[in-house]
């Protein structure tokens, strides 16, 4: 299915426990061998640019075969605290650094990673426009914004792509954000289709996460919300058995099939997960209706 973008965040080594360099290389090999050609990285994916560097090793001299989305506007402090910085100096410097790390001259899409509360979003948008004018990217986009912020950003630069969360359990973006993005002429790329692995169906109700794993901090992994998620997953297992698909493939296929969605942005930590993602195919209307009926 060509409506899948592979995100390198899980391979960047920031919040993922137990992923080795060999795991990352094997996962990337499986994704490319599986036919996926669209990749998503960011300046802040890795404390020292691990995501960009990994992508660069696999793109090599075959740049024209791949689509690369980058993101700028987030950094890490010396003690590994996330910093949001939408200033012109940071956006320009980090775009240039990411391109050098990857070993390419131009992004297909460059996004503002998130709005800086200390910088008017229009100012950040204008800087992104400067990067577009300089030829560092073919197109400009934004993520982690609401509908009003998207309107303001789009009023200051030609914004053609957005990223937002969407999965079977979290559908709010279908109500207002995605319709607004469509109205503004933006491609919509959705993340969290697998909800950090929960909607892959491979995390048990009583699973204990390793120390340092970031997932227990998300509401969907806590208390009643987590139990509700597992109730839904139990029903998805029946649909998976009847269709010959995996739960992960159902989750990805559902997200990628929603109105206005251009691609589902999905990550993996292991080659077998990558193979499963790459083998995802479109879902029939009957299967989509059955999944919708679960919520």
UniProtKB/TrEMBL annotation:
Signal peptide: none annotated. InterPro entries: AKR, AKR_Detox_Biosynth, NAD(P)_OxRdtase_dom_sf, NADP_OxRdtase_dom. Residues 4-294 form the NADP-dependent oxidoreductase domain. Gene3D superfamilies: NADP-dependent oxidoreductase domain (3.20.20.100). One of its GO terms (cellular component) is cytosol. It comes from the Bacteria. One of its GO terms (molecular function) is oxidoreductase activity. Its EC number is 1.1.1.-. It is an enzyme of class 1 (oxidoreductase). Keywords: Oxidoreductase. This is General stress protein 69. It comes from Rubripirellula reticaptiva. The lineage of its organism: Bacteria, Pseudomonadati, Planctomycetota, Planctomycetia, Pirellulales.
């Amino acid at each position: 299915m060509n409506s899948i973008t592979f995100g390198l965040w899980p391979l960047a080594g920031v919040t993922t426990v137990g992923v080795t360099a060999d795991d990352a290389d094997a996962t990337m090999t499986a994704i490319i061998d599986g036919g996926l050609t669209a990749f998503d990285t960011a300046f802040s994916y890795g404390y020292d640019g691990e995501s960009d560097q990994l992508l660069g090793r696999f793109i090599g001299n075959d740049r024209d075969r791949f689509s690369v989305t980058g993101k700028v506007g987030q950094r890490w402090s010396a003690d590994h605290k996330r910093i949001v910085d939408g200033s012109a100096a940071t956006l320009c410097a980090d775009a240039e650094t990411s391109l050098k790390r990857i070993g390419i001259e131009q992004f297909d899409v460059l996004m503002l990673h998130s709005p800086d509360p200390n910088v008017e979003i229009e100012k950040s948008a204008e800087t992104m426009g400067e990067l577009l004018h300089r030829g560092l990217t073919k197109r400009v986009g934004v993520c982690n914004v609401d509908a009003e912020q998207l309107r303001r950003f789009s009023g200051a630069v030609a914004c053609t792509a957005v990223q937002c969360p969407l999965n079977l359990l979290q559908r709010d973006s279908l109500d207002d954000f995605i319709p607004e993005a469509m109205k503004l002429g933006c491609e919509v790329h959705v993340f969290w289709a697998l909800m950090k692995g929960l909607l892959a169906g491979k995390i048990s109700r009583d699973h204990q996460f390793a120390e340092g794993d970031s997932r227990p901090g998300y509401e969907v992994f806590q208390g009643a919300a987590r139990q509700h998620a597992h109730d839904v997953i139990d029903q998805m297992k029946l649909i998976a058995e009847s269709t010959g698909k995996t739960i992960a493939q159902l989750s990805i296929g559902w997200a990628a099939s929603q109105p206005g969605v251009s691609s589902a942005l999905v990550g993996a930590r292991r080659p077998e997960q990558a193979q499963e993602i790459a083998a995802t195919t479109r879902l029939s209307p009957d299967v989509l209706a059955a999944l919708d009926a679960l919520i």
